Amino acid sequence: MRLATPVKASPAKTEQIILFRVSGQLFAISSASVQEVRSADSMSGGATEISAPGLRKVRHVLRRGDRSLFIVNGAMHFGLHAAEGAQLFVLRKTRTALLIDGIEKMTTMTRLQALPLSFCHEERQWYRGLTALDQTVVPVVHPEGFLSPNPLSCCAWANGGSPSRRTRLPNSLLQAVFFAFPIEHRNWKA
Fold first, then answer.
1. Model pTM greater than 0.85?
2. Architecture of the domain spanning 15-181
């Protein structure tokens, strides 16, 4: 009688992430996507204020050499109540800097859950998926989801187009928790 050879379990893929807050909401981003973290005060001298009525989430542009970084207000992007950001994430491979409230911590993510179908509009571009950390469901943002690939076309859209319907984060996130994770992974706080 032959015994089956044991199958080696492949080690779980892990990814370093940064947990951060915007208007009190917790988000995650891959640490490999963040080129640098800066104080929001450090941009005050170098940032130029811009006015694009249809693109309210971008109020400043920061010139770095021959390159422009568009500063996206995280609260306005996610449809949360406005808050003054304290820090900036300068994102790799984009022309975006994200204004956030602050960093919670760096940690390791072992599982990225696909977005449930309740995420059905712009938020499908905003998030890579959801993860559960310490029994809390955390959306993992997609660094390229803050602006279109060509910021100039984004500004043209702001001047001539109309914004599409935006689903607010708390409602979508609440629905996602109920559909994506079993009860034992939900964070129930009174």
1. no
2. Beta Barrel (2.40)
